[in-house]
Design a protein that fits this description.
By secondary structure, the chain is an alpha+beta fold. The protein has helices at residues 3-17, 34-50, 65-81, 93-100, 104-122, 134-146, 151-154, 183-193, 209-224, 228-257, 266-269, 274-289, 297-307, 417-424, and strands at residues 25-29, 53-60, 85-90, 127-129, 160-164, 171-175, 264-265, 313-317, 321-325, 329-334, 349-350, 355-358, 363-371, 383-386, 396-398, 405-406, 415-416, 436-439, 442-446, 450-451, 463-471.
Length: 475
């Protein structure tokens, strides 16, 4: 089989593995180098067979302005010689790196994909095809392994994936149809077609980590263990297959634990080993944020540890996210999310002996005297019945204070309010906003949770005081 036939066969198989449909509109990430030139040339040869619409997209990174501009001109000439439309986008990567305080490598990748996404969206393209090869896969696996990655990192790149860029709503369908194609095959294919690719001098600079792996480490490994590059690519495939099984199991547990409000049942976590719980938490975080970037092992370990402890706690995570643990559930929320079922904090408010007081967030506290009902359990934690003698005292509505103690209904001794909150599973993020009805006799009612023992309805009471915290939004 000729070099061209072999290359096109691999590319066609890669397109199938990337689930690229016939008739697709594709943006080709085109630097003009050997890999992207081989990709574009191959797609041109398959264009009629697969009815593709192609556009070569070149991102000028301005890392070295003069050479970057020359590379853009050369890339455009190659695209035009192949009869493919050409679009160029210029991004000042060094400025992005300086502004966002990230490496030039990271800035180039982020800027490149943002630009390609905008172009793909404007053209309603199926996705962006990149020239990643089997050698790139090996480099990726080795780089991730050096950083102590798990199965996901060792699994390397996939033939297609949805790229989500942090702190934006950007999503891009990235296609890598040459992951099973050696870089040498790309070079040979270009030579056969008489294409002179752009040679990026930065690829020979050992200033960048990936270049050190490409230029120094992999050649040594191939010398010590011939075929190491191919072996790393196989390792990625094996790890990816294993990860697929793990993720299936994780998704089953996520589905079992998911509550209707987006939180997760803690009971499910008691049945699984810590390693599976860690993956479940990572997946739940990814569902909430849209990606798992910046989530580190130390964050996951702390979430696992917190879940085995008391309820009502929360911890801060990357990407403006808070992990919370309630009595029966856990979940994730953004810093500006407010799931508290109580009014905002307020200063002391004196309640009328009969009537109502308006609070913020459309809450109202009501007090009235009514005939004693047959059932003293109102079935609503925001409503309670007390002895009418309560109204002999000045009633004050407030939030908690240091040193608060009260005698919960059914108990013989007073308890610290803090201990009561913990025992009742009141989330820590809610505690400063729980309305507390106080009097000269002590705390009367912790709204939403418990009446004080001393304020309960007595057998001789024919009437009762009815206390109610109402949210007009709910009515």
């Amino acid at each position: 089989m000729s070099t061209e036939s072999n290359f096109l066969e691999r590319l066609d198989a890669g397109l199938t593995l990337a689930s690229v449909p016939n008739g697709a509109s594709l943006i080709v990430a085109f630097s003009g180098g050997p890999d992207s030139s081989a990709l574009l040339s191959g797609l041109v040869r398959l264009r009629e067979q697969r009815n593709f619409t192609l556009l070569a997209a070149h991102v000028n990174h301005q890392i070295r302005p003069e050479s970057s501009n020359n590379a853009q001109i050369a890339a455009q000439q190659i695209a035009e010689s192949l009869g493919v439309g050409f679009s160029s986008i210029t991004v000042d990567v060094p400025a992005v790196a300086a502004t966002e305080k990230i490496s030039v490598e990271s800035a180039a990748r982020q800027s490149r994909y943002l630009a390609l996404t905008q172009l793909a969206n404007s053209r309603d393209a199926f996705g962006v095809a990149t020239g990643h090869t089997r050698d790139d896969q090996a480099e990726t696996v080795l780089l991730h392994a050096a950083r102590g990655a798990g199965l996901k990192g060792i699994g390397g790149m996939s033939y297609s994936s949805i790229l989500r860029i942090p702190e934006s709503s950007v999503e891009l369908n990235v296609l890598r149809p040459m992951l099973d194609t050696p870089r040498a095959a790309c070079i040979q294919f270009c030579e056969e077609l008489g294409i002179v690719p752009v040679i990026d001098k930065s690829n020979s600079s050992r200033e960048y980590t990936r270049n050190k792996i490409r230029l120094d480490i992999l050649p040594l490994l191939n010398e010590a263990a011939p075929g190491a590059t191919d072996a790393f690519a196989r390792l990625a495939k094996n790890a990816s297959d294993d990860l697929e099984i793990v993720e299936w199991v994780v998704d089953q547990h996520i589905a079992e634990a998911r509550n209707s409000n987006g939180s997760y049942a803690r009971s499910v976590t008691q049945k699984i080993p810590p390693s599976l719980l860690a993956r479940m938490l990572m997946r739940a975080y990814e569902i909430h944020v849209g990606h798992s970037q910046d989530l580190e092992r130390v964050h996951v370990q702390e979430m696992v540890r917190q879940l085995s402890g008391r309820s009502g706690t929360s911890i801060e995570l990357p990407n403006g996210t808070r992990f919370f643990i309630d009595k029966e559930a856990f979940g994730f929320a953004s810093f500006d999310d407010d799931d508290c079922p109580f009014p905002g904090s307020f200063t002391d408010i004196e309640l009328p002996l009969s009537g109502s007081v308006q609070l913020d967030r459309n809450f109202t506290i009501k007090v009235d005297i009514t005939d004693r009902p047959d059932n003293l359990d109102p079935g609503d934690p925001n409503t309670t019945f007390t002895t009418p003698d309560l109204l002999k005292y000045v009633l004050t509505l407030r939030n908690r204070k240091n040193g608060d103690r009260f005698q919960p209904l059914g108990m013989t001794a007073k308890a610290k309010l803090q201990d009561f909150f913990v025992g009742a599973g009141v989330p820590e993020r809610w505690r400063n906003r729980v309305p507390i009805l106080d009097s000269s006799q002590g705390i009367v009612w912790v709204a939403g949770y418990r009446l004080a023992e001393w304020a309960k309805v007595r057998p001789s009471d024919t009437q009762v005081a009815r206390l109610e915290l109402v949210s007009s939004i709910e009515r």
